[in-house]
Amino acid sequence: MKIMVEQSLGRIGIGIASSLALIPEFHISFWDVGVKPAMDMFDEFKPDLTVVSPSILGNEDFSIASSRYPNTAVICVGNVKDNLISPALSINSDSSEFPNIDFDEGVMLGKIGRPQYDEALSSDVLCLTDYVQETKENANILEFLSSSYNTKIFGNGHFNVPSYLGIVSDQQRANALASTKVVVDLDGGSSYDAMWLGKHVITSPSSILQLKKDIDNLIEEEENVIGKIRVKNKTYFDLCSQVLAFLGLRNESNFLMEKKREASV
Amino acid sequence: MIGFLLNQTFDLSVLPKIEKNKECCVFSTGSPTANFKKTFLQTLRVYDFKETIVATDITTAMLASTLMLPKKKYYYITGLEWVGHKPLVYQELKEIYLNEELDLIVSNESDYRIIKNLFKEPKFIVKNWDFSEIEK
Q: Are the C-beta atoms of B70 and B53 separated by less than 8 Å?
């Protein structure tokens, strides 16, 4: 099965792609809309499934290309409006015109795998910047973390602080999560991955003072059992399993649930 | 004897500080000042050097890590070079700062804390290029 995921979907696109990529015979590619016209994408890749943002559904080129490939299922991530074609399924849409799955955020199990503690990656505080905007406010938070704690910062988002150590592989990212005490989530998603691994998380700190208080409280705490329970069924494997079941791909849906069980052990 | 590996565009102000070390030489593809009193050799000569070698930045640290002959290899960290470097890839930093071939030396207490937390514990704090303590 060939699946095309729009590249600009961000974390949710990566979450879906990294989950589906584990299924045998599933081939995942990313579509950069700015580089490849819709018609070329369809003609060259001939996808069985496309996962796109709402703006694509209002795109005339995509609408025409999609009509030439009626067997290609279209799934839309986000609130669908002003659409020229209807998706087979939407994720996080208010519209009642088509089936919808609500999914705020979740654990990217496909990227976490089975991480191990790594002394070289260990820290008291960890921040992952893959989807963090390079704003002054975020820079100030990271500057504070860098100067006040044994902090490590990894990811694609670049910040000029000593603790920012650059881009890491998925395995290194997962091991860094497994080797920290507190995760400061500035992207709204990495906290799910951290909670899956029983780590304490701080999301959207209201002020530096509050952030310091929270870190000082959490740094000595044991495993975050409540957090683990909270995200137990909020994984991209769950989302993709639902999507596959909706598309009638029962075996593949069950395969992901089995993978989730393996990851939970 | 300590050999200092300097990059091509090294800061000339370090030469008088290096000079104060009793037995030392410099390897570089750059040029010394006219009044530099110690031995100044082309970088290529470092491959024959058997004494203690001290790399002084990331590029010379990469070279030092590959040398077979020196009895001891250090990377003297005088600044947090990776800050602001773009794109920054952790694996590349790891290969330098966590390289088992190289022991780290820092120039102040603040860098000691940072390097210890981020990579590994530095062996020494050497202030102002005075390596007399290490030579003992």
A: yes
Q: Which of A161, A162, A167 sits opposite B90 (nearest CB)?
A: A167
Residue A113 identity: G
Reported ipTM: 0.91
Which of A240, A226, A237 is closest to A263 using CA atoms?
A: A237
Q: Do A160 and B83 touch (CB under 8 A)?
A: yes
In this complex, do B89 and A169 lie within 8 Å of one another by their Cβ atoms?
A: no
The predicted model scores a pTM of 0.91
For the segment A69-96, what is each residue's pLDDT rounded down to a tens digit? 999 999 999 999 888 999 999 999 988 8
As a whole number, mean pLDDT of residues A58-62 equals 94
Chain B interface includes A152 (CB < 8 A): yes
Distance CA A204, CA A187 (A): 8
The second-level CATH assignment, the architecture, of B2-135 is 3-Layer(aba) Sandwich (3.40)
Measure the CA–CA gap between A78 and A155, rounded to whole angstroms: 25
Domains and CATH numbers, chain A: 2-104+235-264 (3.40.50), 110-230 (3.40.50.2000)
